[in-house]
Amino acid sequence: MRAASQHGANAGPPVVWLTKRAAHSQGWMRMAPGRVADKGEARLTVVVGADSVQRYDKWACRHGIEHWWLQAMERAAGEHAHRWYVSEQPVPRSAWTDVELWAGTGYRRAEGA
User: Fold this and answer.
1) Cα-flanking dihedrals φ and ψ of residue 29, to 5°?
2) CA 101 to CA 39: how far, in whole Å?
3) Among 93, 103, 74, 87, CA closest to 15
4) Shortest CA distance to 48 belongs to which of 14, 80, 19?
5) Residue-wise DSSP of the chain
6) Average pLDDT in the 88-101 region?
7) Which residues contact 40 (CB under 8 A, 6 or more apart)?
8) How far is CA 113 from the centre of its chain?
9) Residue 39: how many other CB atoms lie within 10 Å
């Protein structure tokens, strides 16, 4: 299976997906019929060092993404992949500054967060 491809779930190396935007789009996750992976139920705000993250588009190219697939992801999401980031390292709990849960109409701060 090619890394960073459309073939199957978790087709590339395991990563933590990050964005600088509070409102994120996940249209690209709904591209394959029968495969919906909504990762928006919880939103974590984290503080990580710039050296631990990579721009997704550059990372994906290094891992063999097919150019047409990257473009399809961008079209579905309605934004360019240069706004997305990945970390190949886990983000430790100590780096979380806020945890919010989807409450049907918006995010609400999780108790104890």
Assistant:
1) -75, -15
2) 11
3) 87
4) 19
5) --TTSSSSTT-S---EEEES-SS---GGGG-STT------SEEEEE---GGG-EEHHHHHHHTT--HHHHHHHHHHHTS-GGGEEEESS---GGGEEEEEEE-SSSEEEPTT-
6) 92
7) 24, 26, 102
8) 21
9) 10
Read off the pLDDT of residues 19-61 as tens digits, 9 standing for 90 and up.
887 665 555 454 454 555 556 678 889 999 999 999 989 998 9
pLDDT of residue 54: 93
Distance CA(26)–CA(57), nearest Å, equals 15
Q: Which residues contact 4 (CB under 8 A, 6 or more apart)?
A: 11, 12, 59, 60, 63, 64, 65
Residue with tokens 């430790």: 92
**pTM for the predicted model, two decimal places:** 0.69
Amino acid at 108: R
